[in-house]
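Annex B. Sample input.
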Amino acid sequence: MQDCLPAIEIEHGSVPPSFSVIWLHGLGADGSDFVPVVPELGLSEGVGVRFIFPHAPEIPVTCNGGWVMPAWYDILSLSPNERRIDEAGLLASREALRCLIARENTRGIPCSRIFVAGFSQGGAVAYLGALTHPQALGGVIALSTYIPSASLLAREVAPANRQVPVFAAHGSDDDVVAPILGKQARDLLLGEGYAVDWHEYPMPHSVCIEEIADIGRWLQARLA
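Annex B, continued. Sample output.
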């Protein structure tokens, strides 16, 4: 197998991992960004979960003046209601995600027990990666994010993940990824028959304690 992206790994529980969560950070951050969330999820100690926090490669980002930073793909331009992105970079990040999923398979975790999570730009990759994955996954956690290419998703959507459960959340005061983008993603998926558990919180482009607790409850219900 090809080398996967470097990542931080945290194992939760008193037993060996039987589930995995691959959690993708946002633009300009790195894999350490969401490590502190793990103990706050309130998951049972009786279920083993391996959390994987990969580091995105560093690339120039056009909308940020070409500055080189950790990013899952280049954002060519942005406005309150849309993003114009580099689809080739998005597809490369999907392949990087697939590498991480395949590595978990070799470690004994089937796709049905793998959850893909992401915040902001990482959430966009999580949406595309999970909904186009050829084998059914355990679930998707999409935070303060959007669907980066509806046309690409429509072309490559995977029948195996038509029933994948989705936890989607957004801040009502988000001035980085406008709430309308999160709602557009929600409505697109609901219109296609996906099961979307939607949450909105009075917060900016971030996470909050209430959101983390809701994610923990949603995840625990699927680990039981």
